Amino acid sequence: MARTSDLSGRLRAMIVERGYGHNAQLPPERELSATLGVTRNQLRRPLDALEAAGLVWRHVGRGTFVGARPVLNIAETEYLRSITTPAQVIEARLAIEPNLASLAALHATDAQIERIGGRIDECIAAADWRGYEAADNSLHLEIARATQNKLLVFLFETLNTVRRTVVWSQRRATQRPPRDYASFREHRIILDAITAGEAGLAAEAMRVHLTAVYERVLPMLKP
Predict the structure, then answer these.
(1) Domain 75-221 - what CATH class?
(2) Rounded distance, CA 137 to CA 144, Å?
(3) 216-221 long-range contacts, CB within 8 A, separation 24+
(4) Among the four residues 5, 22, 116, 182, which has the most C-beta atoms within 10 Å?
(5) For the whole model, what pTM was predicted?
(6) φ, ψ for residue 108, nearest 5 deg
(7) Cα(192)–Cα(139) distance, integer angstroms
(8) Share in percent of the chain as helix, strand, coil (round to 5)
(9) Alpha carbon distance 168, 160 (integer Å)
(10) Which stretches does DSSP call E strand in the chain?
(11) Cα–Cα distances in Å, from 50 out to 65, 90, 118, 178?
């Protein structure tokens, strides 16, 4: 019998090879089972594992979709995606996330700081870009949660849902982030500022990080 980890890896490879974007619907379970040569019961554990990792989400009666479960419904997500450009996503992130990092530095608990560090470790250990993006998404969400402000968390999750839809499926030159990927260091600087309770430094570190991401990932949109 195929191991869950093996089937999870094959599913992830299939998602990448077939070019499924964020919130794209995967084939029905019976078709996935046939493609992978397993039963539907054997398929469900690896789907559970991918869902737990934030790489797919399932809607009863509708199917399985790529990415983490959105805050918005699909119709709302599609509408916002249709009126939003990648450059506007970056502008919105620069307007919101440095302030979230600043508030996290003021209000984060020890447990939340530990979770942020764990998400950074997951980014570094990711086996491929899709895994890195899922871990990076969780990292920024943990920072938002550390503000202790549920309204801001909801606003961040709305922005993040649109962000993943607009810029998630990018062509990459490598299978995974390089070992010296600049974001790894930038993440650590943000965490150090939050841990030290330095609100201004945390905000600036987040601003520097997002600007660097903008320059690395979307150079054609740079003003």
Answers:
(1) mainly alpha
(2) 11
(3) 216/182, 217/167, 217/170, 218/86, 218/87, 218/90, 218/167, 221/85, 221/86, 221/87, 221/90
(4) 116
(5) 0.68
(6) -60, 140
(7) 14
(8) 70, 5, 25
(9) 10
(10) 56-59, 63-66
(11) 11, 27, 18, 23
Calculate mean pLDDT across residues 118-146: 92
Q: What's the DSSP call for residue 24?
A: P
Structure tokens at 202: 């945390």
CATH number at 4-66: 1.10.10.10
Beta carbons of 92 and 156 less than 8 angstroms apart: no
DSSP element (H, E) containing 40: helix 40-52
Query: For residue 197, is it left (φ>0), alpha (ψ between -120 and 50) or beta?
Result: left
Fill in the amino acid letter for 132.
Answer: Y
Q: Are 26 and 32 a contacting pair, CB within 8 Å?
A: yes
Q: Which two tokens stand for residue 53?
A: 């990792």
Q: How far apart are CA 74 and CA 23, in angstroms?
A: 8
**Mind listing the pLDDT tens digit for each residue in 14-62?**
888 888 877 788 998 889 888 888 888 888 888 888 887 778 888 767 7
Q: 220: which 2 tokens?
A: 């054609």
Euclidean distance between CA atoms 169 and 17, whole angstroms: 12
Neighbours of 85 (CB within 10 A): 12
Q: What is the largest CA-CA distance in the chain?
A: 54
**All structural domains of the chain with their residue ranges:** 4-66, 75-221
Tell me which H or E stretch contains 196: none
The C-alpha atoms of residue 137 and residue 5 are separated, in whole angstroms, by 22
